[in-house]
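Contributing new complexes? Match this layout with SUD.
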Amino acid sequence: MSAALTTRARAKVNLSLKVLGRRADGYHELESLVAFAGVGDELTLEPGLELGLSIGGPLGGGLEADERNLVLRAARALADEAGPLRWGRFHLVKRLPVASGIGGGSADAAGALRLLARLNGIARGEPALLRAAARVGADVPVCLDSRARVMAGIGERLGEPLHLPPLFAVLVNPGVPVETAAVFRALGLQPALPAVHEGQAKPSLRAQRSNPEAAALDAPLDCFAEPVLGLAEGKTRVLAMTRSSVGAAPGPTTGLIAALAESGNDLEAPARRVAPVLGEVLAVLAALPGCRLARMSGSGATCFALFDDCRASAAAAKALQKSRPGWWVKPTVLR
Ligand SMILES: C[C@@](CO)(OP(=O)(O)O)[C@H](O)COP(=O)(O)OP(=O)(O)OC[C@H]1O[C@@H](n2ccc(N)nc2=O)[C@H](O)[C@@H]1O
Ligand SMILES: Nc1ncnc2c1ncn2[C@@H]1O[C@H](COP(=O)(O)OP(=O)(O)O)[C@@H](O)[C@H]1O
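Output block (do not edit by hand):
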């Protein structure tokens, strides 16, 4: 019997998130600069004949270890894509809040795929692995190797890994689970009509928008155009951002934060309608001494604050743990 295999399922943080439009199937086209935190869940695979899952950890309480769990869904998806697998029993130590915009479940699914790939000698770039990831959830592909990059499409188009300067952050969750689908619904974009004939006039995204917030979104691209957003374009913009940050005084971290301040998260406003406590979280973070940027990750409700150095982020986390004992507060470095 082989020894147990272990992996870390790191929290994903959407440093910026732009919604470009809604596809005919209802999913939304995004462009997001994603980074990963030092904090995460832990996943172990004990090789054996049966596929199984047990869950522990401080935040594992409300999570069922049944076939709906993303760990088992990922295992089944890989078996569908790659054929019969050697498998075993997973144990998940849940440290990330559930349904919180930092992709804990997606990271667990990606971790399960990595462990099964190791056990079965499946290479990291194997198409079956990537297909299985995309089948399980929009955020799973980017969590496969958990490196900072631009993610586009609905999450299946990934830019090259980026070497961002370290971002000293505090992650905060007020303990209110937020369903991703509810936030996208609250954005209020109508699905695009499917394109029937080549060359046919294509309805603009602007025309689809059914509320003022959505209308305020800047949509330079038509969702029928392929690619919706050349990943190269997104990548160039991020590289320009990090490059300009390198030259900016006093350091790359500060420069990157300044560049990020010019972007935003298009899901923040609809998420605030779904979970009004977000307004309070963001205000509290913005008022922390040394906070350079306060923003929501993904569809919420986890928010992050960025600081110039780790002393400032550690002090802010300490103050927050004291003043808001009911909130989940984690100082971490995003990379
Ligand atoms: C918004 C993001 C940003 O990174 O993060 P989270 O807030 O979930 O962490 C992701 O796109 C979420 O990815 P993930 O959580 O894997 O989404 P899925 O399970 O595939 O989809 C959940 C639901 O969200 C909606 N959805 C999701 C992704 C997307 N690009 N467009 C959508 O409209 C769909 O209604 C879908 O049924
Ligand atoms: N292993 C898992 N960890 C977290 N959530 C899971 C897991 N398996 C299934 N889920 C379900 O997936 C949904 C998304 O969870 P999660 O990835 O934590 O949030 P988000 O997509 O907002 O980042 C939740 O509704 C949760 O019930």
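Reviewers usually confirm one structural detail per submission. For this one: The pocket of SUD (ligand 1) is lined by residues 14, 27-28, 30, 32, 101, 103, 106, 137-139, 154-155, 180-181, 184, 298-299 (CB under 6 Å).
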